[in-house]
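Entry 12.
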Amino acid sequence: MVFSLTRGCWSEKILAERRERAARRGRHTSEGKCSRINMKLYLNETVPYLEQPPSPLEFYREWIGPNKPCIIRNSFSHWPALHKWNPSYLREAVGSKEISVAVTPTGYADAVHGDRFVMPEERRMTFSSLLDVVEQKEEGAGVFYVQKQCSNLTEELPELTGDLETHIPWMSEALGKLPDAVNFWLGEASAVTSMHKDHYENLYCVISGEKQFILIPPSDRPFIPYELYQPATFHQRKDGTFEVVDEECADKVPWIPLDPLNPDLERYPDYRLARPLHCTVRAGEMLYLPSLWFHHVRQSHGCIAVNFWYDMEFDIKYNYFHLLESLSRTVGVL
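Predicted 3D structure (tokens):
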């Protein structure tokens, strides 16, 4: 009798596990099918190229409204920055200016390290000192990257604004607003931007070198893992090594622990259902990165770029995405 009851309990447990596995397979099958349908009906399998900048109406109708990325050629070929911004010119123009530089031991700033979300050490240094590191004229412990995103081009390097436009006219007309920020980027090849999303319509212009992007649409949010982390900051010791210092009295930060270059599919099996797009943006090209798209970024050594952040419209698309995030948290994705 005891044996029979025990066997019955085990049978129920086995059946429950089988039902759970079947439900998971069914969910994965249906979610994967939805992701593939999105790719066929809503998205392209690769990021499309436009050979010239579109009209404001065309760009809004074909790209901003549908929330689809594209790479635009010949959109800023008239900027003097394309042929002027080399190290010797930059040393002469802004070499003595102090700027904010992110310094990390591995090149991953604002990223998950162990059980912490770790931000870079923000170091003030002259532009010439940064170029010495990038050009390897001076050895620097750590990885250096100009990545401050509070319109650092106009705030810290206004001397360079005469070499480009401080907004993109057809984008400003399409959205009926000017950009919230114009950011300058320069760093080493080891500098990596971890996977994240922004609430901005982003135009990313590569001046020299190239950037490699991994893009994942907002509709794949259920497959993107988030976890909560204690925020911390890198701090370089006198001997050149780095320590991680916790941010006191700070709330935990939700962040993506997954590295799309080497995803841990055993820990995050749902990610295999995502449909990432890979693209390389070269000098003279502009990437339109729509709001709420997840993105991971690498670069060639010494790559220089400028991006324009236009505030997104918090309209029905945002409401749908917010609903998708809420449902993802409900099923345990966070």
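Annotation: The domain at 48-330 is CATH 2.60.120.10 (Jelly Rolls). The chain has eight helices and 19 strands.
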